[in-house]
Amino acid sequence: MQNILEIKFKNIFVESFLGDHSLDSSSRETLGVLYAKINPTPVSGPVLLAWSSDLASELGMPFPKNPQELGLFAGNNLNPSMIPYSARYGGHQFGHWAGQLGDGRAITLGEIHLAEKKIYEIQLKGAGVTPYSRRGDGRAVLRSSLREFVMSEAMFYLNVPTTRALCLVTTGDDVVRDMFYNGRPEYEPGAIVTRIAPSFLRFGNFEILFAKGEIENLKKLTMWTIDRFYPQIYGDNFESKVFLFFKEVCEHSLLMVIEWLRVGFVHGVMNTDNMSILGLTIDYGPFSMMDQYQEDFTPNTTDLPGRRYAFIKQPSILFWNLQRLATALSGLVNAQNIFENYLANFEQNFLDQYYKMMSAKLGLRGQPSEEIINLVQLLKEVLVLGHFDMTLFFVKFKSAISEDKLEHKIKILQEASYLTICPEVGEKIKFFFNLYTSIVTNSHLQIKDIEQVMSKENPQFIPRNYLLHQCAQELERGDSSLLDRLMKALKNPYSEGLQKDDPDLLKLAPDWATRTPGCSTLSCSS
Ligand code: AMP
Ligand code: MG
């Protein structure tokens, strides 16, 4: 295998669009262009903490064998075929237009070409200032980089559409952060994650062009995105292609959010600049996997007053974000109401897919009937009233269904609850089990088929926030054993073998975790 400094990278995005070629990192608006060329700022002492070997072999990326090669993942060395840049985008943040944002700390180095139209961008996050850094330093701290590295890889193996992470490097330079926004900033170790995706384009890349009246650029970007990433779109004319493109983005994004609800993921900052045009989970910041099932749970301290980005609001926020994308694309078509007409069916589409997904978590396949919708409603009540853990509930439920006695079933479910199940809740659970059993009996389903469906839908392992918190603390002390265990577990999150291999990773979140900042809630300060 060639070494990383000799591979020939592509620069298709840079070559396809207008850009700012000044290499000037000073903060500014870059009107009329889609990106600004910028080189990463070198760091003092890069150390490789983690390497995704499966992803690397898929990409044909050789393991860095010496400081020069490692330097590429720290921004210290460039491969001569690379033309690094930061993308210009805007976005709606917390419901308001925020103007130009752009990659304030992400720098795309180049593209890896695997086959015709199979291209992956390689991007450093935390690699130094760019024209879009505004007041930021362009850097990232170890705790947040570790979270992105582990979570994005975990999402991939959980079968949730996501950008990926190739490696995690500490920089040797400290970064100042006011983690709790309490006016007491502290030094934290800096780090860089190398991210991989077919494209990091967001809704915001389209929005900024519309907002600034750069319609030619918007048209070009839209056609390019369709051609590269949605080649199946076929339309007689430009307008119908734009409409079909919007429809695809809606479908991909909805699928992503359904998958978030399936595994209990809360993104935390669903601003339109954090919405991938490919329907990938992108920009892992103050996200969290949900421990106890709470529909209004938001991990983001900035989001606490309104809980705009709470777990159960994610589909309606997606809808809101899609309306913003529709507005941007309306700059390209005459019949503006085509987007609105399509979005009128969004809620029904969501509900159909949601009930299908939730019933599959209970081992039931097929189009949900009214009875199944009632069952899912009841399930949600049980989850809330029983103070159940989102993940463990379904793991234990699977063991409980083959038990004959209702008391035994409840005893098994108790292991998935953060409280002792009281008699009233016990009655609710019995009612739920009775309905479940009658549905199963009437539909002539075999227990083994139900169990098979449940095993595919319900993970055993999720990277809980407290585990990521502990892992970051241990890494700061130079201990990578928990990281190694997490990386092993996340590759087979549905495997029942994990119960034997590393049962401690599968437990309920400990009591202390709910009280410790950084475990339960997180700030955007990363
Ligand atoms: P986020 O909330 O992380 O999606 O970031 C919103 C905007 O702030 C994006 O334009 C980021 O690139 C930018 N940003 C976040 N953190 C930093 C940082 N440390 N330095 C520079 N820009 C940043
Ligand atoms: Mg972002």
Describe this entry's structure for a reader.
By secondary structure, this protein is α+β, with helices and mostly antiparallel strands. Among the domains are: 12-200, no CATH class; 204-354, no CATH class. 42% of the residues lie in helices and 14% in strands. The protein is built from 19 helices and 13 strands. The chain has helices at 12-16, 53-59, 67-71, 142-157, 203-211, 215-229, 238-263, 314-329, 337-343, 346-361, 370-385, 390-400, 406-414, 423-442, 447-457, 465-476, 481-490, 498-501, 511-515, and strands at 19-20, 35-37, 47-51, 85-87, 90-93, 96-100, 106-115, 118-125, 140-141, 164-177, 186-197, 265-266, 288-289. Strands 3, 7, 8, 9, 10 and 11 form a six-stranded antiparallel sheet that branches. A three-stranded mixed sheet has the order 1-2-4, with no helix packed on it. Strands 5-6 form a two-stranded antiparallel ribbon. Helix 4 packs parallel to helix 17 (481-490), helix 11 runs antiparallel to helix 14 and helix 12 runs antiparallel to helix 13 (406-414). It is globular. The two termini are 36 Å apart. Magnesium ion binds at residues 273-274, 283.
